[in-house]
Amino acid sequence: MTHPAIAANGLRKSYGDKTVLDGIDLTVPAGTVFALLGPNGAGKTTAVKILSTLVSPGADSGEIRVGGHHLATDPQSVRAAIGVTGQFSAVDGLITGEENMLLMADLHHLPKAEGRRVTAELLERFDLVDAAKKPASTYSGGMKRRLDIAMTLVGGPRIIFLDEPTTGLDPRSRHTMWGIIRGLVADGVTVFLTTQYLEEADELADRIAVLNNGKIAAEGSADELKRIVPGGHVKLRFTDPHAYRSAASALTGASPDEEALSLRIPSDGSQRELRSILDRLDTAGIEADELTVHTPDLDDVFFALTDSATAPASVPAQNNQPKENAR
Ligand SMILES: Nc1ncnc2c1ncn2[C@@H]1O[C@H](COP(=O)(O)OP(=O)(O)OP(=O)(O)O)[C@@H](O)[C@H]1O
After folding, report:
1. How far apart are CA 76 and CA 293, in angstroms?
2. Which mutation among 14, 17, 19, 45 tests ligand 1's pocket best, with the greatest number of atoms within 8 A of CB?
3. Structural domain boundaries of the chain?
4. pLDDT by residue (tens digit) across 190-221?
5. Structural domain 233-294, CATH architecture
6. Does the model's pTM come out above 0.90?
7. Which ligand 1 atom lies nearest to the CA of residue 38?
8. How does strand 233-237 pair with strand 215-220?
9. How far is the CA of 155 from the centre of ligand 1 (A)?
């Protein structure tokens, strides 16, 4: 594929007088992971539903192509190219995992033998062989989610939409799911995921877009997004008030906290800057009791960009202050 897997220009959607998506542009190169981040109700699911043909876009939207096909004029081809799993699970709890898979194979008109082959392969790949003959209602949340994705893959989609794939999963199941997603991408599949977990976007996504107030507030790689938010600093703590005061005068530019006997020094956390701070302390003959490095992370980006009172309409968000110590 030379064209992007997903390309949307001026994607709009309103419900009544509520504007949910206010003209967003999305481009997802084939074989990459794109994460759409946003607070509750930002419109992430709406975007997924539109791109996967489940909901029609606003009439004033621009051109939308998925898998190279026009969403407006050729939704059938879009549907053939994609798989969708998410909050609207396709798993039927009354039948077994294997039966769910075979049903999917029938829906995709696979010949019986082929359907059985694909089912066996996917059950194996998603570690569901032991549970295959049990009703899906007896599966744990993580198993159901794995089955859901396995079902999505029966038709061999090249683009998959994962709407909050790990919401509600425990840390181990979440890591298993991340491994599955990485495996899909290694096979050349394009993944469009929505998530509220910043760590998830950081771990998986090549590009991340932060959706806020119907617009993309910022877009870039995790590192690019972290760079637009200031707030990296080194914190030094002291127990001895005398050492604290000596350090405060040795380290010009540090913000003092008299009560906590701590100093906050703006820093990018690099080895060079840390060495310079430590050298200045050494020269003054002072030893700090604790040194911590705070580098901006996606939490900072998220809080800076999605604080509804201060969020900018577009990048860069240079003037936003990160939420102090989001973790
Ligand atoms: N069918 C609908 N009719 C009316 N309003 C809707 C409809 N679907 C979604 N909305 C509204 O659109 C907004 C965006 O909803 P959406 O589900 O896309 O958000 P989200 O970012 O996925 O949120 P969450 O993280 O909570 O799942 C919400 O205010 C929601 O109430």
Report:
1. 52
2. 45
3. 6-91+139-227, 233-294
4. 999 998 888 899 999 999 999 998 999 999 99
5. 2-Layer Sandwich (3.30)
6. no
7. 21
8. unpaired
9. 28
